Each structure stands twice: as C-alpha cells, then as structure tokens.
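User: I'm new to structure prediction. If I give you an amino acid sequence, what do you actually give back? Let's try with this one:
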Amino acid sequence: MKKYFAEFVGTFILVLFGCGTAVIAGDKVGILGIAFAFGLAQIAAIYGIGPVSGGHVNPAVSFGVWIAGRMSAKDMIGYWVGQFVGAILAAGLLSVIASGAAGYSIAANGLGQDGWGPGYQGGYGILSAILFEFVATLIFVIVVLGSTQKSAPAGFAGLAIGVTLLVIHIFGIHITGVSVNPARSLGPALLVGGQALKHVWLFLVFPSLGGIAAGLLFRTKALEAK
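Assistant: Good question. You get back a string of structure tokens that encode the predicted 3D arrangement of the chain. For your 226 residues, that looks like this:
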C-alpha cells in the first residue's frame, strides 16, 4: 500500500503544480512557464517518491513498465488507482484555490484540461491530437524505461524524465494541452465536464497505446541494454 500511496502523492504534485500553473499563472508565464512547471513538478515527484514506488506518476508509464516485464499486474492496477485518485483530488483542490479569484469560473476558465479542435489552443484536428499523444507518450515512456534500466547511470533518471516532459510540453501545449498521462487528463476533465469530458477518451486511449508500444520495445529487447 505504501507504493500505491506514493503514486497518489506524486501524481497529486504533478497535476496540482502543472495544471495549477496553467490556470493561475498561464497568462503571465506563457507556454514556456507552463512547460517548466510540468517538467520541474515531474522531477520533484520522481525524486520525492521514487525510492518508494519508482515514481511513475502516470498510468501510461505503469502500463509500459508492466508490458516490459518490470512489475506485476496487481501492482500496476494499484498504481493506477493511486494515480487517478491523486489527479482527481489535485484538480479538486485547484478548483477551490482558483475560485478564490473574482470572475473565475470552471466553465469559462477551466482547470488546464486537454482537448483539440476549434476553440481549443491552436485548433488542431483530431488526427494531429492522436498522432501527437501517441508519439509523445511513446518517446516519454522510452526515456523512462531506458533511463531506469540496470545499466543506466544511477541517479539521473528523474532529471532525464522531467526534461523530456518539459520539451514535450513546449512542443505540444498548442496542439492538445499535452496529456501523455491519462490521470492528468481525467482529473480536470471530470470536474470541468462538457467538452473536456467528451474529449477525454482520446487522452485515455492513445497515451496508453504509446506506453504499450514503448514497453514492447523493451520486452522484445529492441531497446534493452545487453
């Protein structure tokens, strides 16, 4: 249970500070600031809870780790529960904090939810959203699995993973808002509802498929160090 609670805490950190920066300070810090918030929050979460659970803080990562043969199905499900609950509670706390500003409305201002199409960010279509989320998650989970394998330099995985997430956000915020993490997407979408909830399926499915593909590359030894 300690591992599952650690994943709850780590995902809570990521969603609160990543989405929180987008909602509270996005108009001041811009895309770069939001990207740094997600990347640095990821680094903090990994080093904070990594010694307990490995610091997945992402169901797609746990899926990839399981496919690669590095964890049991039981633990993967326990991680998922911790991650999704952490994301939902972080979004709930963010909604309470954000509502303290005059004129704030969840319907109008949101909670940093992901999406695509007209009226969202750059207005990119569903194909762009699918391709970005699949490929970005594939790359992200490859970095996670590669930097945590036994032959990788010790102590640097958290930094490599956080920097990768930062770069993914710089590239992709204007496309989908960036998920690469089903829990990060579901938490805000559940509270915002409407279009966010209608779109959330994409951010549950394609990051998961990206995680599976990355896991297979390591399960088949295509990227596993000899």
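You can read the tokens as a compact description of the fold. Here is one thing that stands out. The mean pLDDT is 97.
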